[in-house]
Amino acid sequence: METIKVMITDDHPVVREGLSAMLKKESDIQVVGEAENGTVAINKARELQPDIILMDLRMPEVDGVEAMHQIRSENPDIKFIVLTTYDNDEYIFKGIEAGARAYLLKDAPREELFKAVRAVYRGESLIEPTVASKVLDRFAELSRQSQAPEELSERELEVLNLMAKGAANKEIAASLYISESTVKTHIQSIFQKLGVSDRTEAVTAALQKGIIHL
């Protein structure tokens, strides 16, 4: 059976001791070191070359997120399990973006911790259900935000091109043989589709997206 080398990083000695005592009871897990903050973790990771680092996020000097970034830049093979008391969105996504392969709260059952260590060592990921639901919600929101904007109608493109040439609403109406109120309706629709709030922003956004050309 392969031995999984684990390093524990947490600024509370009692937490480190408790985690170490639990993990040492598992025959396939070896605790190779401990670190009380991100700075020490970076140096010890370089020295000990663990397979997995249990990483707290909020620590003095260098926090867990920055420590993970630096350690990964030196040794991308080291994997991370975030073990924290914080389950708010900010910490979840900072931890995952920094490279955490598992995210557990400190009140998780010890069996979940053992399961996470072995899963991450095998190259898998494990996220607590309460945290996973927040991750899925965030991905759904990002998906909605990344959807292509609604296309402008042919008439709206005509209005937009005239706006880009500096034409006022009255001039646009006369040029397209429509009323000024209809022009205003088209302009509001253009603003909504482009996600802007005024004519200058609309023209700028349309040029950047290649919708119109001067």
Which keywords apply here?
six-stranded parallel beta sheet; Arc Repressor Mutant, subunit A; 55% helix; 2 domains; 214 residues; single chain; 10 helices
Explain this structure to me?
It is a single chain. The protein is of the alpha/beta class. The chain folds into two domains: 4-144, Rossmann fold (3-Layer(aba) Sandwich), CATH 3.40.50; 154-208, Arc Repressor Mutant, subunit A, CATH 1.10.10.10. It is built from ten helices and six strands, in the order βαβαβαβαβαβααααα. A six-stranded parallel β-sheet has the order 2-1-3-4-5-6, sandwiched between helices.
Q: Give the C-level CATH assignment of the largest domain.
A: Alpha Beta
- Derived from helix and strand composition plus strand pairing, the structural class reads alpha/beta
What is the fold-level CATH name, i.e. the topology of the largest domain? Rossmann fold
Overall tally of domains:
2
Query: What is the chains' assembly state?
Result: single chain
Give Rg in angstroms. 27 Å
Mean pLDDT: 87
> What percentage of residues falls in helices of 4 or more residues?
40-55%
Taking the sheet with the most strands, its summary is: 6 strands, parallel
The order of strands across the largest sheet is 2-1-3-4-5-6
Shape: elongated
Number of helices: 10
CATH architecture of the largest domain: 3-Layer(aba) Sandwich
Distance between the termini: 68 Å
CATH superfamily of the largest domain: Response regulator
Q: H/E series, N to C?
A: EHEHEHEHEHEHHHHH
- The residue ranges in which pLDDT falls below 50 over 5 or more consecutive positions are none
